[in-house]
Description:
166 residues, alpha+beta
Amino acid sequence: MTTKFKGTEVHLHGHLPAIGQAMPNVRFVNSDLSEGDIAGLKGKVVVLFSLPSVDTGVCAAETRAFNKHLSDLGAAGLALSADLPFVFKRFCEAEGIANVKGVSDFRFRDADKLGVRMADGTLAGLLARVVFVVDKEGVLRYTQVVPEVGTEPDYAAVLGAVKKLL
């Protein structure tokens, strides 16, 4: 699987999970340093989006946008990156982000189960911009690999997938 960064092709490490299959149980670290996992969200529709770093303009805008869009829907939002938990805590508090939880891949590196880590290019080691929608039973129902890491996802398509599951 590939994406692009500033027009240059970037390969992703591993493979994306298959639509219709159980979502891999990705573990993460919350902004308070507690540990969590996607299995703990069973019973909720989940929008998990991976991103390079919430300290960049596009990633910050994406997190703000999902926070706004998901507030009306009742789906859980998880922003996953290699950022340290402190970065997410600072950002979410400063921005009033309440409907998206910023979670870190720094400890477990379970994003590799999702095939979203960039294997080469300038941002090698960071996570690509990919969106997953998981149903209440923990089954992956939608995936969007954003074709250019420096652009936001197609929110209408993601939200359409979420609405079908609510």
